[in-house]
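Before a colleague's protein record goes any further, I have to sign it off. What it holds is a sequence and that sequence's fold in token form. My question to you is simply how this chain folds and whether the tokens agree. Thanks in advance; the entry in question is below:
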Amino acid sequence: MAPAAWRGGTLVRMNAPDAGARTEAPKPPSARTHALLERPIGQTLLRMAAPAMLLMVFQTAVAIADTRFIGQLGTEPLAGLAIVFPLVMLMNMLSGGAMGGGITSAIARALGAGDAATARSVVVHAFVIALTGGVLCTLLMLTAGRAIFTFLGGRGPALEHALVYSNTVFAGSMLVWVSNMCGSILRGTGNTTLPAAILISAAVVHVPLAAVLVPGALGIPSMGMRGAAVAYLCALVVSTVLGAVAIFRPGSALRPLRSDLVLHGAMFGRLLRVGGLSMLSALQSMSTAVILTGFAGRYGTAALAGYGVGARLELLMMPLAFSFGQALVPMVGTALGAGDLKRAKRAAYMGAGFAAALCGSIGLIAAVFPQAWTGIFSDDPAVRDYAAVYLHWVAPMYPVLGVAVALYFASQGAGRVLWPVLGATARLVTVIVGGTLLIKFGAPFWALCVLMSVAVLFYAGITAASVHRARWV
């Protein structure tokens, strides 16, 4: 007999559970799960996205502060940061948006079906995955960092500055993975406020600490690039501890029991089917950014630094789109766990619309008034000019990017990410082939920016078409 789940106070039939699921009598939903299933979709999305949008303000402040402090050290350190930043973002996307999204989806679907035992088992397996991912990232970047940054166009002092920052940050990769995994687990219950509050607390630690360590203050000598990295790791310690306390505190519904500590290959397979494909998507998306960084470096140090300044705004669009995307994962997952396909699809489309509106507003301002952004980071006219060209051509694509990211997360909630991953593949191939041809024939920098916009259109088009056609059953 198929398992049952609670909806609107009524026990309803469900499809058979995924591999690795635990068998336990379904329980009435918590108030938070009930809200995901019954309250108006738009209101629920906005309520769940609001904490993440507030978090974006703090994370933007962190990014601006780090770039500003390092920019005061000179153009070479700023270029070094531009080389490393996409890889740091990649690690966060792998641990939080990709594998973490798969964890959020699995917990949401389990709770939507009233299966608390499976949700607790997901928590145990998630921490094993996080610890493994952190170790692998550290080993890769400490052994191959120089080769990677050289491939990306890093040369001379810019390369050395990049290595100083990278070696410090990636030595603490495990903190990134565990911190992001804690947030993903909490979001699986539909609670987006607590993980946002935890990361905001970390941001409050990061900025003043970087203000002291990078330039040197309060009797502490300047640590330069290493100071920004140390501030980042200290903030991660804060978020990791707070997240772990929230999950494992007495009375937490997700706190594993002794019987939940057994590892199951079927559960790893279930989580990696979604998280692993999502990681491939994240790898492709950030590989696109990394390759574009390498192409920009062919135009000189000023172009590389200018691209870094401009691209940082695009990368900061991701948390804005993530705010709705991270709300969509538990909303879609919980609805499908309870057998409500119609609600899941409506939530996906509404979330994509919200993301497009917000990202589009910022993109329009950046395209028309690029100096409002570029002037924050550099006084070098050449750097600001290259950044302005980038924003003029790429920023108008931000609403399209918002749609693609939101629908990708909705697909994660459904546990069906193959076609969005193929959309990211199309974007990557477009950039590699088009960028290689542009560099070969000596095309101007603006042509590279146009290529970026075309690639985003391919990504969004394939992702939107796949969600429209998907049955999610």
